[in-house]
């Protein structure tokens, strides 16, 4: 089992370095920090507040489900994060381009990606015409976390899974 985790970690580092070093350019140095904020607490709070204030029954219902989904996903993410205690890549890997944007020490799973996917999936469920745009933006948040050197690919994948499952559960059972 230890060998399996070692292989996963080795591949994580290779993929992380592709996003963090190989595609690095001035344009992405500007775009990625902006994209990463789409998964921030401030952005999702404002997004949900604006949606909640819209005088449309569907949008109002959407905003309430988003708040529940985000709360559930954030709680699950934090529970896993403090249980696993995986250090962020910039702490353990040398020569990463890093931009620390309001983060703690632990990386697994990616909270920003879980938040972005919670919104992306809930948006897709309520407004199917926006599925491509919302999934694309959620994916970009995950990529931005690797580009900025604060998450491994598996952190991002599990953030996507948590956000997706949270949205489906809330959408179907609440």
Automatic annotation (TrEMBL):
Q: Got a GO cellular component term for this one?
A: plasma membrane
Give start and end of each Phosphatidic acid phosphatase type 2/haloperoxidase domain.
63-171
The membrane topology noted for this protein in its Swiss-Prot or TrEMBL record is:
Multi-pass membrane protein
Keyword set includes Lipoprotein: no
Coiled-coil residues: none
Where does the UniProt entry say this protein principally localizes? membrane
| Record keywords | Cell membrane, Hydrolase, Membrane, Transmembrane, Transmembrane helix
Domain of life where this protein originates: Bacteria
Q: What is this protein called?
A: Putative undecaprenyl-diphosphatase YbjG
